[in-house]
Amino acid sequence: MKQIKNLNVKRLIKPLVWCFFLFVFSNSLYAQKMSARLNAYGHINFESVFSDTTYSNFKLGEQELFINGKFNDNFSFLGEITLNYSGHGNYRLNIERLRLKYNYFQNHSLILGKFHTPVNYWNDVYFHARLFFPTIDRPLMFSKWIPVHTFGMRLQGQNIGKNNFGYDFLIGSGMGSEDIYNVFDETSLTAAIHWKPIDEIRYGFSYYVTSMKDASNMAAHSHGDDEHQMNTYSGALDFHMLNASFAYYGEKWEFLNEFSFNRTNTDTLGTSNNVSNYIYLGRRFLEKNVAFTGFDILYSGEKDLHTYPYDRMKFILGYKYEYSENLNLKAQVEYYTNVFDDHSHISSGRKFEFKIQMSYGL
User: Domain total for the chain?
Assistant: First the structure.
């Protein structure tokens, strides 16, 4: 009886409704003999941390259902739902993406729903399945200011012309919400372009802007793998962000650079300029093996009230073995340096981490 009383019924209603909707929808697709595909993905982690406090643990990572359905030549549907450990033996269902796409002319489409904000290569190409990640973790910028999700409307073009030009223009929810778009409350605008002169290379640029009435609510970029710092500043904040990406994935060499610059402005402290850059370099050998290294840096200025002053560098050295296209094993060593001010709840210093991840897909 005590467990029943402590159960938060309201928190269960939303995930159950969405699960029911996806179940009914997927069954209707098969029943009507429409083109549909259902996949499952997941991963399991082991990590050892060596810093002021040393510990090791196994973690059950995101477990995911991914459905991709096509009604006809013009309309398609995509749904992505994850199951995450939330502490004390409890798990939480998240609707990561739920979108309806209308291909109105050749490679030009209108998309409605919740989707990944196409601000950089990582967020536009990789979804939540770690099977496809080049490393175990996302870049540091994802834990601080990258808006992972947006709910709204999106105009998209793909593979246009001989250079495979693409564009995305979207209007939707701000950083304070990723499931509800309050049209007259908080709005974000995103403009992104990319092109692929050859299959192995992609260049991309984006601009993102939003005005937050309450900067303490940062729901749209809470999917970083680094420690996520809660924001205690609840005032208004203007946010402008520029991103540039370069990706090369050849037969032997792999390279990815993600650059992000943003400017925040508040009535309290004024303007702050913040920057982050992520570099990944991998070398494939013996067909199924990839040795890789990486460097990740993030800096936010002293006047920033969005993430607060933050200065961290991360060095990565790792190895990936691909048992098959649906199963791989990654192992990596990470070394962190960081400097925090008194606003932070995380102690300053240095940290080593050793991680192993088994990721899979069906």
Answer: 1
